[in-house]
């Protein structure tokens, strides 16, 4: 059995479909003012189909605050959805149509009501002035259009067919020959013999779970069981809709009405509840709540899952879930600000960088032919401008951190250098010098920088009998402190 609820007095802010979910989980929203329910089995809860219809009509008159609609509705019960829709639209109150009696109940309805209600003033005499047909109650398929329907109804009017009963009395063979299969579908609709499935209205998915605890929780282990339960439900909902999430918001309600929030931002969409649980526990250990927990709420933002196509000759990257767990454990040990990948800053300050969150880079798509040609041309130009003499090519090895140095200078020029640490040492007499080159910047900040750089050749004594060896270094002097440093060596 199917039930239909129809009303023309519903308010704009009230949802008829949400009201119908209180009586059946299978709901089709035919129109804003019409819904169809599958009431099979609901008699066990409400007593009988007719008692169910009475309960729906009674509940609809209730105020919106009490779960009602605040208006009167028409309720019809029939063996198929279309018969229930016609009865609810054109008969006031409660209508019950027994199986096989559809034509007796609907036979006197005008033929124009097959596709929706129309008042007499909506039926102009000329064909060009007729409004578009309402195809709300039929699953007509993609081949139907208004012109075809108008042609069929015009033919029926010329035949003198005015009601559902007269249309249903026509011979099936004759309707098929003159109106085709489309006419047969309309005749079944007029006879109340259609058989179709409901186009179920899926409720909006909710990816949020909350629980109120009977007793406060002050330890991490019992809290983990609560988090596991909520995360398992959320991940099951994500799997049901083929979605994932890259952000979790956890709100812990503490004693005294205070809220403690935890946010988990992921570089890739995931939906593994075990990984989420481990990450949340690590985050809770690093940021423990100041009081006992009396309530937990978890919310996530659904996104499309990550799709990765690997190649036969491409080395496998670590799984994002395992990588996130590793990074979370390292962050707990050394601090979140001390782990990540270095990124150069857009500044002239020497060795200026910051540590950002580590993320695996996706493989780039194939470049276009034009871009590939431009890159080849640019590479050829660079090769032509290269220095062909390999003896003039130098490499620079940077000391990190730079070596603190003692420099003897005359008239501002370095004459002798002495610098050392645990692993290396630089000392000797300066035999050749180039510079200074002064660099400075960010004078408006408290940590502004300014220094003079030099390239110096130092003569060092090697083994006995081998003579002297000259090594080229770069040194600099900080202007604010006056201290000297050895920045690196040229190879």
Would you give an account of this structure?
The structure is a single chain. With 491 residues, the chain is of the alpha+beta class. It is built from twelve helices and 17 strands. The chain has helices spanning 16-20, 43-46, 49-60, 81-90, 102-106, 146-159, 164-168, 172-191, 220-240, 273-286, 320-334, 369-384; strands at 2-6, 27-31, 34-38, 74-78, 94-96, 208-217, 244-254, 259-270, 293-303, 341-344, 353-356, 396-410, 413-420, 425-441, 449-461, 468-478, 484-490. The chain has a six-stranded antiparallel barrel with strand order 12-13-14-15-16-17. A five-stranded mixed sheet has the order 2-3-1-4-5, with helices on both faces. A hairpin with a 5-residue loop joins strand 16 and strand 17 (484-490). Helix 9 runs antiparallel to helix 10. It is elongated and about 120 Å long. Residues 118-137 and 363-368 have low confidence and may be disordered.
Strand and helix layout:
Elements: E1 2-6, H1 16-20, E2 27-31, E3 34-38, H2 43-46, H3 49-60, E4 74-78, H4 81-90, E5 94-96, H5 102-106, H6 146-159, H7 164-168, H8 172-191, E6 208-217, H9 220-240, E7 244-254, E8 259-270, H10 273-286, E9 293-303, H11 320-334, E10 341-344, E11 353-356, H12 369-384, E12 396-410, E13 413-420, E14 425-441, E15 449-461, E16 468-478, E17 484-490
Parallel strand pairs: 4-5
Antiparallel strand pairs: 1-3, 1-4, 2-3, 6-9, 7-8, 7-9, 10-11, 12-13, 12-17, 13-14, 14-15, 15-16, 16-17
Helix pairs in contact: 9-10, 10-11
